[in-house]
Amino acid sequence: MTVEQNIAATRRLIDEGFNKGNLDVCDELVSPDALENQRGSKPGIEGTKDTIRTLRSWFSDFELTIVDLIASDDTVWFRNRATGVNTGSVLGRPPTGRTFDITVMDIVRFADGKMVEHWGVPDQLGMLIQLGLFGRPQPVVAV
Length: 143
What we know:
The chain is an alpha+beta fold and 143 residues long. It has helices spanning 3-19, 24-29, 44-58, 124-130; strands at residues 30-36, 63-72, 75-85, 99-111, 114-122.
């Protein structure tokens, strides 16, 4: 695949998969044995589908917006803005109805037209704080 095709596949996976919840796009764009390097995520097509299902169950209006993107050869690096309203249970906690807005850094590698490896670094602590599911650290006062 060309760099342009890898960029198009990345954008399509974000738009159709994550933003619209179309899980069929994973069958087309993710390798069955894709490696997943994001903590807590499962490998392969089913792992990507599971991540999309989970995010969309936590946030019915979940959206990823690609802010910056660069690609070289078989690899695409991109910075996303993730937003949504918490309408479902997150980590066993009831929905808060609060919104979140965080940065997610992603890297994907392609081979033969399919994503074969993913690294993701979402600001999970920021999300939990914004949703009210984790308290803000209190400053230490010297005595």
